[in-house]
Write a structure and sequence with these properties.
It is a single chain. The protein has 446 residues and is α/β, with parallel strands linked by helices. The protein has 3 domains: 47 residues, no CATH class; 117 residues, Aspartate Aminotransferase, domain 1 (Alpha-Beta Complex); 257 residues, Type I PLP-dependent aspartate aminotransferase-like (Major domain) (Aspartate Aminotransferase, domain 2, 3-Layer(aba) Sandwich), CATH 3.40.640.10. It is 37% helix and 17% strand. The chain is built from 13 helices and 16 strands. The strands form 3 sheets. A 7-stranded mixed beta sheet has the order 4-10-9-8-7-5-6, sandwiched between helices. Strands 11, 12, 13, 15 and 16 form a 5-stranded antiparallel beta sheet that branches. A hairpin with a 2-residue loop joins strand 1 and strand 2. Helix 3 runs parallel beside helix 10. The chain is globular, with a radius of gyration of 21 Å.
């Protein structure tokens, strides 16, 4: 029996959907399968053929306009002119690797480090979040002399050999590393009667103890602080501190994976970890850093990084190249100039409030939670039992697609709509999203 991945297969096109496609779409899906193989996935039972993007909007090959409520890759908006211009200008001058001197990488490093706690004072660059997390795990193991890595039960941290072994969201077909341990997700919706911070710390200690019982030395905890793959679980700001204290008390380090909550996404802080007033040992970033240009980074405390960098050279041919740095600098500048952190906070709060009104109208809406422009909309079969309704969530996703609103699902049960639009999302877009969601729920539950 084929395995299923919560992050790849929950909302995906499958062979049984092919009969319902128009001729041209069927030709494209058949060709894709032939030339790309079977590991790739497409969204939706009827895949979308996109040809253009601008800000928070996308257009398909037929010219139909869509509202993007899922894309944090183009974090400041699709085809932002500042990024286009910066990349174009640098491409006309030079693009090479980091073994030559160049100002861009130095200027950007100083700029982005200024957004972080002063203890984090070193930067390294790659092309993808997977590479950043892979290197972070290597550094954690070097610093601690251990191998054990703790992640949450539905975490996704990358596709390299190391990171896929610590990414349970990839599914049962992906074997987890023997030194990986899974922490129960801090699901405040289902754990509303406990002190979540204390509970989370206890769970952390239990996993560290289990490692020790199996002869594994603890190296570190790798987490996305909004727990996006676990179902978008922002929790009360600050609840993570006690668990991070446990990590440090046991000789491990905390790696903050900021690919999802970073770059002003949560509104309450520039970084997801800062929302919890945490000081990580390592910070990793990826997708939104370059607004679609492949660039990622690792930022660390100098003493933590020294355990690795003083002994092992590291080189990434494309990591930190001038064009990538130009794109990354443009993103930082736009976030400041367009006041996107405050924008994310204010528009996100208005969106959250409007989405929460749907709870009064639809009994199937169990919880609506979020921080800034990152919101989880959870659908259940029964509010009392909080039993997840994955089928309804998947049907809602398809209805939204018909209404030209694009998003997907998350969480271990695949029942949480993951609403994460580009930061270009505006107040006037709220009616389109909430209206389409209201209509979809009404049509599917009538």
């Amino acid at each position: 029996m084929a395995t299923r991945s919560t992050i790849m297969d929950t909302n995906s096109f499958r062979a049984e959907h092919a009969a319902g496609l128009d001729r041209h779409t069927r030709e494209l899906t058949d060709k894709r399968s032939k030339v790309l193989g079977e590991s790739y996935r497409l969204f939706y039972r009827k895949p979308v053929h996109l040809v253009k993007g601008q800000g928070q909007y996308l257009w398909d090959a037929a010219g139909d306009k869509y509202l993007d409520v899922y894309n944090n890759v183009a974090s400041i908006g699709h085809c932002h002119p500042a990024v286009i211009n910066a990349v174009n200008e640098q491409m006309h001058q030079l693009n090479t690797h980091t073994r030559y001197l160049h100002e861009r990488i130095l200027d950007y490093s100083e700029d982005i480090l200024s957004t972080m706690p002063t203890a984090i004072d070193r930067a390294m660059y790659m092309c993808t979040g997977s590479e950043a997390n892979d290197l972070a795990m290597r550094v954690a193991r070097s610093y601690s002399s251990g191998t054990g890595i703790i992640v949450t039960q539905e975490a996704y941290h990358g596709t390299s050999a190391l990171t896929s072994g610590a990414s349970p969201a990839l599914g049962t077909g992906q074997t987890l590393d023997a030194t990986t341990r899974l922490l129960p997700s801090p699901d405040h919706y289902r754990l509303s009667d406990v002190d979540l911070g204390h509970w989370f710390a206890q769970q952390m200690q239990a996993q560290i103890d289990d490692m020790a019982a199996h002869g594994i030395k603890f190296a570190g905890f790798l987490a996305d602080s909004i727990f996006s793959s676990d179902g978008v679980l922002p929790g009360t700001a600050g609840f993570m501190q006690e668990a991070i204290d446990v990590v440090h008390q046991n000789g491990g380090i905390f790696i903050a994976d900021e690919v999802q909550p970073g770059f002003a996404r949560t509104g309450e802080a520039f970084w997801g970890f800062a929302r919890h007033a945490l000081v990580p040992d390592i910070v990793t970033v990826g997708k939104p850093m370059g607004n679609g240009i492949p660039v990622s980074g690792l930022f660390a405390k100098s003493d933590v990084l020294a355990s690795f960098s003083d002994h092992i050279p590291y080189f990434n041919t494309f990591g930190g190249n001038p064009v990538a740095m130009a794109a990354a600098q443009a993103v930082l500048t736009v976030i400041r100039d367009e006041n996107l952190q405050e924008h994310s906070l204010t528009v996100g709060r208005k969106l959250l409030t409007e989405l929460q009104t749907l709870m009064d109208k639809h009994e199937c809406v169990g919880d609506v939670r979020g921080a800034g422009l990152f919101i989880g909309f959870e659908l259940v079969k029964d509010r009392a039992s909080k039993e997840a309704d994955q089928q309804l969530a998947l049907d809602v996703i398809e209805r939204l697609r018909e209404k030209h609103v694009l998003t997907s699902v998350a969480g271990p049960y695949g029942n949480v709509l993951k609403l994460r639009p580009p930061l270009a999302f505006q107040e006037q877009d709220i009616d389109w999203l909430v209206g389409a969601l209201d209509e979809s729920l009404t049509e599917l539950t009538a």
